[in-house]
Amino acid sequence: MTSHDCLKAELRREHQHVQPRGRLDSFWRRWFLANSLLSGVLALCWLILRSGAKPSRFTYPCQQAAFSTAALAFGVPLVAALVAARRRVVASLRTPVGITVAGLGLLVTVGVAGYLSRASAYQGPQLDPPRGYRAEVYHVIDCPEDPVGDRFPGLDNLLTLMGHEGLKFYQSPNESLLAGPDGIIAADDVVVIKINYQWPQRGGTNTDVLRGLIRCLVDHPDTFSGEIVVCENAQFNSTQGFDRAENNAQDHGLSPHDVVVWFQDLGYTVSHYDWTLIRYNSVNEYSDGDMNDGYLVYPYDADLHGRVSYPKFQTDYGTYISLRDGIWDADGGTYDREHLKFINVPVLKSHSGYGVTACVKDYMGVVTSELGTNSHSAIYYGILGALMGQAQPADLNILDCIWINAIPRNGPGTPYGIATRKDMLVASLDPIAADIWAVKNILIPAFIENGYDPPFYKADPDDPGSIFRIYLDNSMNWILDAGYDVTNDLDQIDVVTWDGTEGNGDLNGDGCVDQADLGILLADWGCSNGGCPGDIDYDGDTDHADLGILLAHWGEGC
C-alpha cells in the first residue's frame, strides 16, 4: 500500500469517527429550530387573537412580550438564511417571481406598519396638578412589632400624627387630638375597608394593622353605631373565605375572618364581603330596580382601552351598598353617599408586571377583570384612576409598610422568606402622592439595601417612562379630570415623620432648643383641640407637660 493509499484510509477512519457527532449536532439544530418556530407561531397566534381589530392592545406589556418572542423566533433563522444565501437572494430578486415576492413583502410591511401606527399609547386627559395644591403625607417609623391586645400601636401613632397635624380621624362636634367637625369617620358611618388579600403570607395586608384599624373605628368618641365591612376582589385567586392559614401578621394564623369574628363576638356590626364571588355578575343600580349583587360596568372607553367597573352588594347585616352612589334606602328610594366611607389599606410591594403595588394598584381588587372590562391591561392607561374619578377617591389611604417586597421585578406574591421588615406606615388623602413618595423613599432604598442596583426600570419613580410612572401618571390624569386634586410632583408633597416618641422641644426645627421655641410654646399655651404648635408630647394640647419637656432639653443642640 502506498503512502497515498494509507492517507486516504486514515481520512476515511476519521470521517467515520466524527460522523455520528455530526448527525447528533444536526438533530439538535433541527430540534431547536422546530421548537423556536413553534414558539413563534404560538406567540403570533396569541398576539393576533388578543389584539384582533384593536391594534391599541399591541401596546400592552403582554402583547409586546409576545411580539418579542415571535420576532426572535422568526427573525434569527430568517436573518441567518438570508446571510447564508445572500447571493442567490440577490439574483432571484431580478426575476419576475422575485419582484412579485418583494412587492408582496413590501405591501405586508406597509400594512403591519399601518396597523401598529393605530396602536397609540395614551389618548386620555393630559393635566397638571394645580399649582397651589399641597399634598400631605403622614409617615410613622419604628412601629412596635407586637400588637397590644387588639390594638396596633403603630396605627395609633399614625392617627395621633395625623391629628397633631390637623387631620382628624373622627368626625365629631367635640374637638380633641383625634376628633373634630371636619374629621373623616362619623359615628354612624358605614365603612368599607379594602384590604389586599389576593396573595397569602406577606403578599396581603397586615392583619394586625387591620385589627388595630377596626378597634380605632369602634372606639369612636361619640359611640360607634355604624357598620364595618372588609372587602376584596382576588380575581383569579380564591380568598378562601378570608381565612387562610398563612397571613401577614405576627401570628401567621390571624386571618381577616378571625379579626371580623373577634369584633362580632364583642357585639360590633362588622363583617366581610368577597367581591371575587360576584365578579362575573353584570347588574344595574338599585335605583334601576336591580337588587342583585354584582358589578356595574361602563361602556367601552377607547382612551382607557377598557371599561370602568365597580361593585354593589348587600352586607351580612342587610345594608345595600353601591360603591359609587352610596347606601341605598329601599323604602325611600334614595342614596346616602355622605355616610359611606372607604378606607384603602394596601401593602407596599414590587410587582413583576407593573413595577409597584401600592394605593392606586390596590384598586385592581375593587374592579372586576371579567365582563369584558380588560381591567388588568387597562391599568397602563389609568383605568383605576378613572374609577376613583367616578366613585371618588378613598376617604383615607393607609399604606402598610410593616413588611414589604423589596425585590425588583418580583411580587405581588410575597412568601415569608423574601419579605423585608420596615415597620412603617404611610397615610394620605392623596393616593398618587402617597405612592410616589413611598416608592421613592421606602421601596427604592430597600431595593438598594437588599443589594440590588439601579436602574429599576419598571419601578423607577424618577423615570416618567417606567411602567410604574406611566400607570401612576395616567391614573392621576383621570382623577384630575374628575375634579379631585392629586399630585405626582414630590415638590408639592409635605411629609411629616414621627417615631412615636415625644419631641425634645425644638419647635422651630432649627436644631436648638432655646428662647425661640419657648416663645412658640407660650404663644400656643392653652391650645387643646389638636394641631397645636406647642404640643411636644403629642397629646393634643399645649400645657405644663410640654413646658417641662422643653425645659428638660433646654440648650440642647445649641
Outline the fold blueprint:
Layout: H1 3-51, H2 61-84, H3 86-92, H4 96-117, E1 135-140, H5 153-164, E2 170-171, E3 179-180, E4 190-195, H6 207-218, E5 227-232, H7 256-265, E6 270-274, E7 294-297, E8 309-314, E9 320-322, E10 326-329, E11 334-336, E12 340-345, E13 347-351, E14 355-357, H8 375-378, H9 383-391, E15 396-405, E16 420-428, H10 431-449, H11 467-481, E17 493-498, H12 515-523, H13 544-552
Parallel strand pairs: 1-17, 2-3, 4-5, 4-12, 5-6, 12-15, 13-15
Antiparallel strand pairs: 1-16, 7-8, 8-9, 9-10, 10-11, 13-14, 15-16
Helix pairs in contact: 1-2, 5-6, 6-7, 9-11
Task: Please tell me about this protein's structure.
- This protein has 558 residues and is an alpha/beta fold.
- It folds into 3 domains: 3-84, no CATH class; 135-498, no CATH class; 502-558, Dockerin domain (Type 1 dockerin domain, Orthogonal Bundle).
- It contains 13 helices and 17 strands.
- It has helices at 3-51, 61-84, 86-92, 96-117, 153-164, 207-218, 256-265, 375-378, 383-391, 431-449, 467-481, 515-523, 544-552; strands at 135-140, 170-171, 179-180, 190-195, 227-232, 270-274, 294-297, 309-314, 320-322, 326-329, 334-336, 340-345, 347-351, 355-357, 396-405, 420-428, 493-498.
- The strands form 3 sheets. Strands 1, 4, 5, 6, 12, 13, 14, 15, 16 and 17 form a 10-stranded mixed sheet that branches. A 5-stranded antiparallel sheet has the order 7-8-9-10-11, with no helix packed on it. It has a two-stranded parallel sheet with strand order 2-3.
- Strand 8 (309-314) and strand 9 (320-322) form a beta hairpin.
- The radius of gyration is 30 Å and the shape is globular.
- The protein starts with a helix and ends in a 6-residue tail after the last helix.
- The model is unreliable at 14-19, 53-60 and 112-119 (pLDDT under 50).
